[in-house]
Structure formats: structure tokens, C-alpha cells
Amino acid sequence: MEKFTSLEGVAAPLKIINVDTDMIIPKQYLKTIKRTGLGVGLFSELRYKEDGSENPDFVLNKPAYRNAKILVAEDNFGCGSSREHAPWALMDFGIRCVISTQFGDIFYNNCFKNGVLPIKVSKEDLDKLFDDADRGANATLSVDLEKQEIRGPDGGVVKFEIDPHRKHLMLNGLDDIGLTQQKKDKIDSFEDKSKSARPWA
């Protein structure tokens, strides 16, 4: 998993409450187990019209936000069914950080396992970040995970809390497999002892 230390980029405002995982990546895109190629399906029912053309009113189709790296979203983002494809689609599109007041539990956990940083902030701080994100191409935010800070284009700072273990995993690019691999020596030692004690097994 790619490390997450800091991120600077355009922040897109998504002013929709209760965005569920089916809205993030609709079910027709769930046939693959590859983590790439899903960016095209991100918010597809909002991004495209029925004839397949782009919806010019959707935020990620607006020129200023096409290369957004950060999403500022309304309350309860990522609720609904469990699908790891949701953070995969965000990553493939280029979004590595989502900021909201609250997240669906499963989506929140899946983000950490796939290199997307979900940040919880207060309603007051979210409103400030929406003001920043509304600036279009000038809506650049800087996220510093080590310092647990979000800096706005005018230098304003929003602090955020994060579980220390999850912070460690993100800073070091460790998913569940990477975390297990860190204990390879102990696992190998256990396996060797087990073979000696039970050669018939």
C-alpha cells in the first residue's frame, strides 16, 4: 500500500448527505476484483447522463475539479453496503482523502486498508472547508497526517483526531498483509519449531 504522509491538491465539495457506497460505485462495476479501472465508475450515476454523456452540473465534471485529490463531503459519507470497491474507485480516480463529519463504519475501515485517508471533523470545521473547496481551481488544501492538520488556501488550520494505530499504518503504507509481513521472523520461527515438534504434521 502506498504511504500517506502529506497531500496537497484541489478539494472538491460534494454537498450531498448520506452518500452510500452504491452511489460511490454502482453495483454493475463490482464484477472485477482488480483495484484499477474503477475510476470511470466513480459516482457514475451522477457524473453521466442516460445517453452516456457527462453531466456538466456534477462537481467532478467541472474543469476546476477534474483533478481533485480531496473530497469534502456532507454527513454520513460511505454509508450502506460493504464494498471495498468504493475506496478502490476513489483511489483510481485520484482522490486520496475524504473529509466529512461522519462515515459509514465499514467504508471508514476499508479506506484505511486501501490507502485513502478518511478525516472526521466538526460541522463547524466542515463548513470552513466547504468555503475553501468552493473556490474552484484555487480550492487547494494541504493535509499533513503527521501533524494531523488541514491547511486552507488562506493559511487557516483545521486540526483532526485519528487513531494512533491507524495513523501508523497509513504513514508506513501498511495494509493487513504488510502488517503481517512485519512479523515474518516470528512466524518463520514458530513454523520451524512446529515442524520440529510435530515432524509428522
Short descriptors:
globular, Aconitase, domain 4, 8 helices, 7-stranded mixed sheet, 201 residues, alpha/beta
Task: Describe, in plain words, how this protein is organized in 3D.
- It is a single chain.
- About 30% of the residues are buried.
- The chain has about 200 residues and is an alpha/beta fold.
- It has a seven-stranded mixed β-sheet with strand order 4-3-2-1-5-6-7.
- It has helices at about 20-25, 45, 85-95, 105-115, 125-135, 165-170, 175-180, 185-195; strands at about 5-15, 70-75, 95-100, 115-120, 140-145, 150, 155-160.
- The protein has one domain (about 5-195): Alpha-Beta Barrel (Aconitase, domain 4).
- The protein starts with 5 loop residues before the first strand and ends with a helix.
- It contains eight helices and seven strands; from the N terminus they run βααβαβαβαβββααα.
- The radius of gyration is 19 Å and the shape is globular.
Helix-strand blueprint:
Elements (H helix, E strand, L loop, with lengths): L5 E9 L6 H4 L19 H4 L22 E4 L11 H9 L3 E4 L4 H9 L3 E4 L2 H11 L6 E5 L4 E3 L5 E3 L4 H9 L3 H6 L2 H14 L4
Parallel strand pairs: 1-2, 2-3, 3-4
Antiparallel strand pairs: 1-5, 5-6, 6-7
